[in-house]
Known about the structure:
The protein has helices at residues 2-6, 15-25, 50-62, 71-81, 88-97, 100-105, 166-180; strands at residues 28-31, 34-38, 44-47, 83-84, 127-139, 142-150, 156-161, 185-187.
Amino acid sequence: xxxxxxxxxxxxxxxxxxxxxxxxxxxxxxxxxxxxxxxxxxxxxxxxxxxxxxxxxxxxxxxxxxxxxxxxxxxxxxxxxxxxxxxxxxxxxxxxxxxxxxxxxxxxxxxxxxxxxxxxxxxxxxxxxxxxxxxxxxxxxxxxxxxxxxxxxxxxxxxxxxxxxxxxxxxxxxxxxxxxxxxxxxxxxxxxxxxxx
Length: 197
């Protein structure tokens, strides 16, 4: 900073250290009052002071948008925000290992997780749910309503019927199949009007 702001070279450097110093200075530039660095990914990030690092670490690891992630993930989050300091990864790992909440949750293995069941992928009008509602007061000779709902689109078909036997279910399903095609599955309560020869 002193070299970029006032052209002052640090004293007591060997020739090798001076070469390295002038090589590293190419990546830094001073824009009053901040020091910026062009990182290896060609993104310009603001260099922060030691006093600012603790607040940045706290915000990126355990703040509202933090999530108590690992040291590497937290360091990448800091870099994405546009901050840099030379010991970034070392400080981040030290901060994360001292975080109590992270230490309690970081060692979850496959053994601790709930078993995952694969979801059956289905298309529209592939799976229908069917059921009777009723007995309603007699209205135009109809006492029951047969309802079929597509599980994917929530499309509903309903018909008022005089009885709740297997014959009316077959007639209803023939109409349904002719309009929407034969489904992969029909889910019912397995009553005698659905499970019947």
